[in-house]
Design a protein that fits this description.
The protein contains 3 helices and 4 strands. By secondary structure, the chain is α+β, with helices and mostly antiparallel strands. Helix 1 packs antiparallel against helix 3 (about 80-90). It is globular and about 40 Å long.
Length: about 100
């Protein structure tokens, strides 16, 4: 379980995906497969969660990394470059954004 704590010194990444209900299941499966077989095995990976809205038009992904560079290195692996090409075809857009935790409740 990924915890949200104010004193976390690593990198938090929130990525949103916009898609149609027609591709929602296939996109979720592609993301689950990427985490199961690739991302979670990368150096610095701490945990993640995948969330889909009830209209099946958006997926939100929350992940935690030991360092910013760990996340960036994962994106540059040949496997993730290929996976992201497929993921990009399944959605209208996706945007990963790096955040710092400012507070938690």
């Amino acid at each position: 379980m990924t915890e949200i704590t104010k004193d976390f010194n690593g990198q938090t990444v929130i990525c949103t995906f916009e898609m149609t209900p027609a591709t929602a299941s296939e996109l979720m499966e592609a993301l689950q497969d990427a985490y199961e077989h690739c991302i979670r095995h990368q150096p610095g990976f701490l945990g993640a969660g995948l969330h889909m809205n009830d209209a099946q038009t958006r997926i939100a992904n929350y992940s935690k990394w030991e360092k910013r560079g760990d996340y960036q290195a994962m994106l540059r692996t040949p496997e993730m470059i290929e996976r992201n090409r497929k993921i990009n075809q399944l959605c209208r857009s996706f945007e990963p954004v790096m955040y710092d935790v400012m507070d938690n409740f």
